Amino acid sequence: MRILIVGAGAVGGYFGARWIAAGRDATFLVRDGRRATLAKTGLTVLGLGQDLHVEPRAMTAPELNESFDLVFITVTGDALQAALTQIAPAIGPATSIITALNGVRHFDMLRDKFGPDSVLGSVVKCVTKLDEEGRIIALTKLAQIAFGSWSGQENERLQAVHTALSADGIDVQISPHIREEIFEKWLLMIALGAANSLLNGDVGTINAEPRGAWAIQEILREGQRGLTEIGMRPRDSAVEAMARLFSDTASRQTSSLYRNMAAGRRIELEPIIGDFLDRVADHGAYPLISAAYARLAIYMRSKDS
User: Fold this and answer.
1) Residues 172, 194: one domain?
2) Helix (H), strand (E), coil (C) string for 117-166
3) CA 256 vs CA 17, 120, 134, 163: distances in Å
4) What CATH number did the domain enclosing 242 receive?
5) Taking CA atoms, which of 25, 65, 76, 282 is between 20 and 30 Å from 226?
6) CATH assignment at residue 55
7) pTM
8) Mean pLDDT across the chain, nearest whole number?
9) Domain residues for 286?
10) What is the tens place of the pLDDT at every residue in 162-183?
């Protein structure tokens, strides 16, 4: 199965390096600058005893003129619109599309562009970052891809995708409940991102202040109510697991949204928290998440000025 990986950043580069090391037929679609870096230094993954180095194939959008069996999209939400046009030559009648993007609105955009049959539901989890030299640093051993059909039915196509994506260090699962998993990942991104940014700390630091411990749980409750309102109700078991996670006084966990803000980088505000507030009837019913959005929007305005 021929795999096109759209983007070679912290997520795409990590999974792509694993697939190439496992002998998969994988090619990166990247911008000119990243292609030059890959040609010069290759692709390196470091951390947690998982060090590896590969020499990947990479191309830019003007060179893309053939279809692939599987397209794995890892660009950020604000780059998706441009990517939709760039990847069009790669999408054939039998192409499967999996995405690592955060939120849910990208699924609608992909289905509108390429049709519902091409786009699989997917949830991708890993904790990685790029260093100043363009190397990928694994911060935890978490590397999971869950995917499935929107109907929950399994078929030969899904099995073929599973075989292609399975490699050492990657947990790949076909999920009969992918729709719920997507909603639950979105809830985690909303609640953790809002709590970290509004309260300016990791989970343990927030819980060290009694009012912080209340606030982080209230943010989670707001997110749960909102997703239920818009017809994306998360499962009770998942919410209970998040509540336990959010009460861990020893946890240093933060969201990628918060880590990017702390590093002075641009953040994915609209696909995660903005889309949530756009979908609910009254954002005033979700005051803590709305306050977090305001804080992050002010930060983004400073980046644009």
Assistant:
1) no
2) CCECEEEEEEEEEECCCCCEEEEEEEEEEEEECCCCCCCHHHHHHHHHHC
3) 21, 24, 18, 29
4) 1.10.1040.10
5) 76
6) 3.40.50.720
7) 0.89
8) 95
9) 181-304
10) 999 999 999 999 999 999 999 9
